[in-house]
Design brief:
The protein has a single domain, classed as Pnp Oxidase, Chain A (Roll). Helices cover 31% and strands 37% of the residues. The protein has 4 helices and 7 strands; from the N terminus they run H-E-E-E-E-H-E-E-H-H-E. It has a 7-stranded antiparallel beta sheet. The longest helix has 20 residues.
C-alpha cells in the first residue's frame, strides 16, 4: 500500500484560494446544537489571525446563532474534476458588528467582489442601493482559529 499523498495547502495557498470570489458555505450552531449551513459571499481580510467578513441581514438565523454561540466554520471549494479539487475549511469564532459605517464599507466590498464583475454596474451607480441595504444588515466577522485544506492536484 502506498502512502497517502500530502494534500495540505500552505497558508499562502489558502489565502490565494480565499481571495478568489467563490461562494462559501457558512456553518453556525442552532439552539439545538445542529449545524445551520448556508451559502454566503465573503471577503477575506489577511491579518494575523485571518478574518473572514460576511454581509448578513442583522436578524438572519446565522446572526442569531452567532450571538448565542460564536463557533462557526466556512467551507470554500474550487475545481472540477475531483483530481483538481482544492478547498479549505476555516474554523473560528464569529461576532456580529452593527456599526453602520463598517457594515456599509463591507457591503461595498462584497458588491465590488461579486456583483460588479457580473453586472458591469459600477459602485458609484450601485451605492445608494447598498446604503439602503446596509441599514438592515450586519457584518459577521469570523476570526480564524484553525484550517483544514486540500489540493487533490498534488495526488499525481
Amino acid at each position: 500500500m502506498s502512502p497517502r499523498p500530502k494534500l495540505d495547502m500552505t497558508f499562502e495557498e489558502i489565502v490565494a484560494l480565499l481571495r478568489e470570489p467563490h461562494t462559501g458555505v457558512l456553518s453556525t450552531l442552532r439552539r439545538d446544537g445542529y449545524p445551520h449551513s448556508v451559502g454566503i459571499y465573503y471577503v477575506p481580510v489577511v491579518t494575523e489571525p485571518l478574518e473572514i467578513h460576511m454581509w448578513v441581514y442583522a436578524k438572519s438565523q446565522k446572526a442569531v446563532n452567532v450571538r448565542r454561540d460564536p463557533r462557526s466554520s466556512l467551507l470554500v471549494e474550487a475545481g472540477r474534476p475531483y483530481a483538481d479539487l482544492r478547498g479549505v475549511l476555516v474554523t473560528g469564532n464569529s461576532r456580529v458588528v452593527t456599526e453602520f459605517e463598517k457594515v456599509l464599507e463591507l457591503g461595498k466590498k462584497v458588491y465590488e467582489r461579486y456583483f460588479e464583475p457580473n453586472t458591469g454596474v459600477g459602485l458609484a451607480d450601485a451605492g445608494p442601493g447598498i446604503e439602503r441595504q446596509a441599514r438592515k444588515r450586519a457584518a459577521l466577522i469570523m476570526t480564524a482559529t484553525g484550517y483544514a485544506s486540500w489540493d487533490h492536484s498534488r495526488a499525481g
